[in-house]
C-alpha cells in the first residue's frame, strides 16, 4: 500500500563519504535562484501581513536576514537586508495596529516574533532604530504574565508564553543582549509552571505538568508539551529547585510516551503506523529538540539515544508529501539530521541532510508533493527550505529557524 504521507526513501545510507558536488559552488546558485523566486511572490501590502513569521511575509524577512548572515552570500548581503527591512517594516505597521493585544504577544503568529526579527534586521543594517522594536517586544511581557491570558491555552509556542520566551532566546543568541530582566523571565516561567500544575491537577494527570491548546493535549513542538518543556529547560537557571524537579519529571514522562521512535500528536493516542505523523509540528522531528536540550544540559545518554532514534525514523519516513517547508515538510525533517550532526559530530547526518536536500529538487517530489498555498512562506514554503540549504553549507552552526537549542 502506498504511504499517503511520505515518499519511499530509496537512497542508500551513508557509506563513509559525503556526496560530491554539494558544496557552495552548487548550493549558492540554488539558494539565490530560490530567493529570487520567493521575492517575486511575496506580497508586501499591509493587507497581506497576516500569518506572522509562520506563513506571512515577515517569515521571508527572517529568511533574507538568515541568508545575509552567511559569509558565502556577502555580495548580496546589503540587497537582501534592505529588502528584508522593507518587508518587516510593513509587518511591524500591521502588528502595531493589531487591536487584540494578546495576539501582539504571539511569537510565530503575531507581534512578538515580528518585533524580534525587525530588531535583528535593523541591527544588521547598523541602525540605532533597532531599540524601538526591542522596546515594543519587552513591553509585551506583562501581557503574557497572567496565568490564563488566552482562552485557547496560554503556554504553547505559536501564540503562548513558551513562544515569547523562545523569541527572547533568539534575541539573546543573535544580538547578544538579554532583553528581559531576570524577574520578568522568572515570572513568565512561574506562570507556565503554575498553569501546567493546575491543568494536570484538574485533569487528574499522573504527572506534574500538562497543557492543552484549543482543548487538545498536544505533545509535539508546534503546540504541545515538548516545546513548552524545552523553553523551561532553556531558562532552567531561573527556576527554583522544586520547579526544576517538576520540569525534569515531565521530560522523563514525555520520553516514556515514545511509541516506535515516535510520539503521538496528542496524549494517550495510539499511533497507527500507516497514518503516523513524522513532522516537526507533530511527532519525533520536533520532539527531538527537547531531548537535545536535555542532553546538552545534563549529558545523560538516554536523551541522546532518544534523538538518535528519532533521526532513524526521519530517515525512513521523513520525505514528506506535504511540501518543502520546515513545519511538516522535507526541510523540517532534514533539520533533525543537522541537529544530530551538531550533537554527535557524525558525518553520516550531513550525508542524510544532503540526500533530503537533493530530493526537494527531484521531479518525483515536484510531481508528488501537495501544493502549498503560501509557497514563499517560512514554515510551509520555500523560505524555510532556503534556511535549511544555507545551514547545510555551515552545519557547525546550523539550527532550526527561530528554535534555539544551542543557547
Summarize the topology:
Blueprint: H1 24-41, H2 52-55, H3 57-69, H4 77-96, H5 101-104, H6 111-124, H7 131-139, H8 161-175, H9 182-202, H10 225-234, H11 241-255, H12 284-298, H13 301-317, H14 330-344, H15 348-360, H16 363-368, H17 382-393
Helix pairs in contact: 1-17, 3-4, 3-6, 3-17, 4-6, 6-7, 6-8, 8-10, 10-11, 10-12, 12-13, 12-14, 13-14, 14-15, 14-17
Can you describe what's shown?
- This protein is globular.
- The protein has 407 residues and is mainly alpha-helical.
- It has a domain at 1-40 and 276-406: Glycosyltransferase (Alpha/alpha barrel).
- It is built from 17 helices and no strands.
- Belongs to the LanC-like protein family.
- InterPro entries: 6hp_glycosidase-like_sf, LANC-like, LanC-like_prot_euk.
- Keywords: Membrane, Metal-binding, Transmembrane, Transmembrane helix, Zinc.
Q: What key attributes describe this structure?
A:
Glycosyltransferase; 407 residues; 17 helices; mainly alpha; single chain
Q: Note the run of SSEs as H and E.
A: HHHHHHHHHHHHHHHHH
Q: What overall form do the CA principal axes indicate?
A: globular
What is the fold-level CATH name, i.e. the topology of the domain at 1-40 and 276-406?
A: Glycosyltransferase
The overall average pLDDT, rounded, is 96
Taking the sheet with the most strands, its summary is: none
Give me the secondary-structure category. Answer: mainly alpha
Number of helices: 17
Radius of gyration: 20 Å
The parts where pLDDT drops under 50 for at least 5 residues are none
Organism: Echeneis naucrates
Pfam families: LANC_like
Protein name: LanC-like protein 3
InterPro entries: 6hp_glycosidase-like_sf, LANC-like, LanC-like_prot_euk
